[in-house]
Design a protein that fits this description.
mainly alpha, 12 helices, globular
Length: about 325
């Protein structure tokens, strides 16, 4: 996994993007049929959806870059504010900790913002590799289905179809709740005049695919920046309250209602898998960890010989 990162990481990223786009396309076809009584074929719908997604991602990248560029230009102000926060905290009970912590004392916000922008730029530069995989996924799908039908018997094909529908159903709902999380986060921070409202909205979309850790980071990172930007008590407090309400509503009310239950994955297994992929593949690996784990669990639970393994990976032993 480590030495094959150059090929495995874009492959699995493109696979997840493919599943997300395919699940959205399936939902779109159903809605058009129900509302407009128009039968839209997958051959037509998938290219349209791919094009729409790429256009949205391109303009989102432009907006994100503009947002980060603006923050980089004001990084000296944030650096001064950060040093003021450290100075204020140095007069409290954590004085000894701050004096001895080289990381906090040497923290350069200009360098951090620049590295974040460079990370996004690197990802945008390597996105062409992911697009190539996506194209081949679409091209190979028809022949792949034909191969599956030639290899497996009818009962096993029904199992594979069930696995396929469960995976698409998960990505339909998870993508919907992630988009909603991103929008609510953006609007909350925009109302509070947070300079990185756009960036944190996009970040919360991706972090929503990472339970527990993602929710915490979606609150703490904007909270930390809000303290540095405003240097008062009220904006950070409202930031914490608003984003906490967003995460509670999405994670504890909306998702369980839509999915019927929360993710049936052992938290210990989830953290182990998250740590392994994070170690091997960095932030992208952390984003991939839970979607891949969900795919693995759904697959194992639908195959009789591997059902026991799925029970061990599940949260309560119920599948």
């Amino acid at each position: 996994m480590y030495f094959g990162k150059f090929i495995l990481l874009p492959f699995f990223l493109s696979l997840i993007f493919y599943l997300i786009i395919k699940s959205i396309t399936s939902r779109l076809i159903d809605l058009i049929h129900q509302r407009l009584k128009i039968n839209l074929s997958k051959v037509t719908a998938i290219p349209i959806m791919f094009l729409a997604v790429f256009i949205v991602l391109y303009f989102l990248w432009l907006i994100l870059k503009f947002n980060l560029d603006g923050v980089i230009q004001k990084s000296s102000v944030y650096q001064d504010n950060f040093e003021k926060v450290i100075s204020i905290l140095s007069n409290t009970f954590i004085n000894n900790f701050l004096q001895n912590d080289e990381f906090l004392n040497s923290l350069d916000l200009f360098s951090i913002f620049t590295k974040v922008l460079n990370r996004f730029s690197d990802f945008a530069g390597n996105f062409s590799f992911i697009i190539i995989f996506l194209i081949f996924f679409v091209v190979e799908e028809k022949n792949f289905i034909k191969k599956i039908k030639s290899i497996f018997s009818a009962p096993k094909i029904r199992i594979l179809n069930k696995i396929n529908s469960d995976i698409f159903y998960y990505f339909q709902l998870k993508t919907l709740t992630s988009i909603l999380t991103g929008l609510l986060t953006f609007f909350s921070l925009f109302v509070l005049k947070n300079d990185l409202a756009i960036t944190f909205g996009v970040l919360s979309f991706f972090l929503n695919f990472i339970p527990f850790v993602g929710s915490v980071l979606s609150i703490l990172i904007p909270l930390f920046f809000s303290i540095i930007q405003f240097l008062n008590f009220f904006e950070p407090l409202f930031t914490f309250l608003c984003l906490s309400l967003v995460q509670i509503y999405i994670g504890n009310i909306l998702e369980p209602k839509l999915m019927g239950k929360t993710l049936n994955i052992s938290p210990l297994v989830m953290i182990i898998f998250l740590t392994i992929l994070g170690k091997f593949w960095g932030i992208a690996g952390m984003f991939l960890s839970v979607p891949l784990l969900v795919v693995i669990l759904i697959t194992l639970s639908r195959i009789k010989s591997t059902r026991k393994i799925a029970i061990l990976l599940s949260e309560k032993g119920d599948l």
